């Protein structure tokens, strides 16, 4: 099965906002049904007229960054796995690539002060509107339209990420530089190469991994003898 096999619950986000997985035909404008996605339609009304002129204005560098990590919402099981791994934790949580905010909402409901960083402004608007309609205060959940690679994460002691295999190594380097010693990092589906796991929950596409930054740092400083050359 490909890494980006669709999750089961794509339900509450319009199909046309989803970046298609490589080599699969993606959803088309108009795939949405108005009855199912009425709240979203109140926020954005996509204008597909004059598409050619609109495409001329696309920032290709921005597009290539986004394309590296496509939008794919966490499945219910995956979100539950994240919550299991967060048990016993508290404080500030950053979700890197927050999508429609589902991990942020799950974590904020158990007391974390969450920030969802997301580069796609449609998804940021959607997540903010969900927070508004659910009455979630900004002290519990905020959504920031920001490139995670340009965001300093030093004030977060919990980080969640569901990104892509190709970015895990460089993300690991960034987190090791920035996170406090007591931080916990949770990655959905894609493990960090060469990081010792604290624990893992689930299997297959829903497998989720937890890492303690202090243990990762000491492991990398003093690698087990068998790994030394
Ligand atoms: C696989 S989706 C996960 C969405 C959400 N966290 C969830 O679990 O449902 C990855 C998300 O990362 C976002 N993303 C990709 N590159 C990003 C970047 N450089 N900065 C912030 N968000 C980014 C994408 O737009 C997409 O919404």
Automatic annotation (TrEMBL):
Chain segments carrying region Disordered: 1-37
Domain of life: Eukaryota
Bias (Pro residues) ranges: 19-28
InterPro entries per record: FAM173A/B, SAM-dependent_MTases_sf
UniProt KW Methyltransferase keyword: yes
The entry's keywords: Methyltransferase, S-adenosyl-L-methionine, Transferase
Sequence intervals crossing the membrane: none
Family: Belongs to the ANT/ATPSC lysine N-methyltransferase family.
Name of this chain's protein: Protein FAM173B
Organism: Characodon lateralis
Lineage start: Eukaryota, Metazoa, Chordata, Craniata, Vertebrata
């Amino acid at each position: 099965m490909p890494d980006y096999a669709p999750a089961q619950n794509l339900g509450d986000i319009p199909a046309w906002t989803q970046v298609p997985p490589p080599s699969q035909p993606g959803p088309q404008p108009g795939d949405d049904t108005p009855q199912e996605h009425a709240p979203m339609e109140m926020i954005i009304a996509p204008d597909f007229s004059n598409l050619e002129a609109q495409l001329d204005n696309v920032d290709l560098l921005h597009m290539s960054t986004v394309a590296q990590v496509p939008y794919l919402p966490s499945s219910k099981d995956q979100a539950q796995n994240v919550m299991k791994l967060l048990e016993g934790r508290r404080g500030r949580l950053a979700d890197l690539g927050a999508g429609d905010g589902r991990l942020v909402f799950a974590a904020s409901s158990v007391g974390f002060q969450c920030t969802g960083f997301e580069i796609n402004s449609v998804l940021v608007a959607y997540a903010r509107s969900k927070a508004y309609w659910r009455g979630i205060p900004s002290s519990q959940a905020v959504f920031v339209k920001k490139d995670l690679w340009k965001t300093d994460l030093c004030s977060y002691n919990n980080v969640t990420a569901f990104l892509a295999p190709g970015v895990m190594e460089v993300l690991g380097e960034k987190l090791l530089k920035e996170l406090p010693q007591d931080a916990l990092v949770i990655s959905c589906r894609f493990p960090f190469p060469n990081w010792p796991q604290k624990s893992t929950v689930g299997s297959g596409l829903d497998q989720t991994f937890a890492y303690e930054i202090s243990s990762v740092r000491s492991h990398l400083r003093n690698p087990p003898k068998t790994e030394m050359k």
